[in-house]
Amino acid sequence: MSNPRLSIIPAGAVTDRSLEPRDLQTLCLLGRHIDRAGWCTRSQVRMASEIGCGRATLQRSLDRLYEAGWVEKRRRDTWRPEDSTPSSSYAYRVKLDRDDFDLKSLARDADDVDDESHAEIAEVQENGEGVPAGGQGCPPVGTGAHAYAGTGAHTYVGTKNDPLERPLKTIERDAGARARDRKDRFKAEFRERWPTSAVDDRQRTDYAADALSAEEEKAALDGVKPFLEELKRQGRKTIPSGWRYLEDKRWTLLKQGEGSAEGSASRTTSIDESSEAGRAIVTLYAVAKAKPFVNRGAVIYPGGAVTPQLLAFAGVADRSSWRWITDRQQVAAWQAFLGEHVFGARAPLLERRGDEEGFYAPASWPPRKDGTWSDVEASQAGGDE
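Now predict its structure.
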């Protein structure tokens, strides 16, 4: 083969216990893409793709190699003024020699060949024909390189090589790194799909994404297109922020709508708007900042029968006496309740009042299944208590 492609790494890095297997792979990759001066300016994204890992994993390997002294780095945009914004783009060069590296360890390795117990020079008993006593020119099956070695274990006598075992801490760190890589890939893909990502609060979007499980991440991505199509179908001219879509888990509303559509013949209920049940549904939707579908004085409710829990909203006083809710547990309870009983697209539940973020509700907690309220005063829900 003409012009072979070589990648040389420092010998000391091979036995450096502060490095991980991925770091050696990264070190070899740097040497594969150097210029005439020995610098590697290849994109981190491309290098991560070549060795099958995420960019964050590659960056951590580069940091460990730099801290261990096996590579050096420099900014690629050194022409920028010193008072300009620092760049995160670096070029790397492998350091084949490190001043503090002990060369005696290599000398000791070289002396190992003089050990009479070394496998390549150890005397082997012959059966008269130059064949080892074990049979067909190899050790007996199941004995390894020596009779006292495990199956297939080529452990040379005289060396002090212990099995390389990965500590539990390293395994946990790798698992955390894989989770971060998965989360980074989700955030990047979500920003590509969501129309308002360029102007959204990026930090808040990251917080909302970090709170999702792997299953919820997949559901959120799968729900982006159907959710946007539903907004278009309803004539909505504004698209909510990406973090609000993630925080409210709005893709779950589509599933609820699909379920109500499939069973519309049996679940949809037509209720007189002036009746107790009709007033309850109208108030319920008002809490969710939405409007139910009303046709000729009849409220069309896709949720089926109006339970005592929903009828509790019929006695709720007007909005002027509602409570301002800021407690996270109470907000989460209301979001779950409204998500279960209110169908179709609705406006964002939370709003800002001064420095606080919350929303107005008839009580601190949703009503119980028997239709009673947990801590609401008479002036706030139902008038005669």
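Residues 11-94 form a domain with the Arc Repressor Mutant, subunit A fold (CATH 1.10.10.10).
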